[in-house]
Amino acid sequence: MGQAEPATESSWQTPPTPGWPALRGLMPANVRIGSAVDGKLLATDERYRSELAAQFNAVTAENAMKWVNLEPSPGVYDWSESDQVVKFAQANGQAVYGHTLLWHSSVPAWVSESWPRERIRELLRQHITTVVSRYRGKIWAWDVVNEVLAEDGSLRDSLWLRKLGPGYIADAFRWAHEADPDARLFINDYGTEGRGRKANGLLRLVRELRMAGVPVHGVGFQSHLRWDRAPEDATGNLRRFAALGVSVAITELDVRIQLPVDAEKLLDQALLYQHMLKACLAVSTCESVTLWGFTDTSSWISSHYPGFGAACVFDSDIRPKPAHEALVQELTSRRGTPPG
Ligand code: XIL
User: Fold this and answer.
1) For residues 119 and 261, what is the distance between their CA atoms, to the nearest angstrom?
2) Mind listing the pLDDT tens digit for each residue in 258-289?
3) Which domains, from first to last, does the chain contain?
4) Measuring CA to CA, which of 16, 100, 307, 315 is 20 to 30 A from 137?
């Protein structure tokens, strides 16, 4: 067992798969390596479960903790899938990253914009309090708000902004903090990995929230990337967020390839995975790198980006791709070197 393994390792139930190295055994002790978890495969596929346990020391529920799935009808919560994810993580010495309390794309259909402001505010408060309280002490970090920015860096036009005004963001963080004072609270977004207008807007927002004493502890960079485009100065960008006194994390890394796949594209993809890992490891407050799924079987890419696929580090037969090897090589070459 590598020295970077957490003490909880003794609680493993699933032995690591032989044949290729486990990322979790190679990570520096203070940085987690995670994957999004597909609830269906977790319940049905033993090979999926065992590789997930072997490779990662953190997990994020890909969909199970989203509001739309947790509360299908008013006041009626279905915890079955999210509890399964937490249970699996605990059994395998993995930390759970909570995703997400508030996302414009996952508002239950029964929530109506015609309701008065106070009713909507109270509904949001209750939702956040209910979910965070249930998992108090079991979830190390929450994406409190997800994708609240527009492409130009201003606040996204959403039900929450229209009904509650910009203060809903600070409220959400305060309610989450009350419900679990020990959880790390993140603001998460996409298209902010590199320097640009949206990242500038996020930087301004985080600075304002921190100055107002809002308990924002970290910034998550989703990192849904294309194989042929690296973000503009990802390391420098992460550093300017860290300089605000917050943690940073790569929260949803995947690198989609325009089909058909070929060897050169797989190599470019591998380099981009490695590049994002390096960017995180170059920032002393980068807490984790999470892959948005680890096998091409379960990736969201083919259904959301027609013509693209093969975005993960394992293929659809759960065999490692060059991207997995690149991560392993990067980590192996750093073993014994002090964090940057
Ligand atoms: C995606 C899931 O991967 C899909 O299965 C689901 O259909 C839609 O949501 N940004 C996020 C994630 O914050 O929650 C999204 O996950 C991907 C984009």
Assistant:
1) 50
2) 999 999 999 999 999 999 999 999 999 999 99
3) 28-335 (3.20.20.80)
4) 16
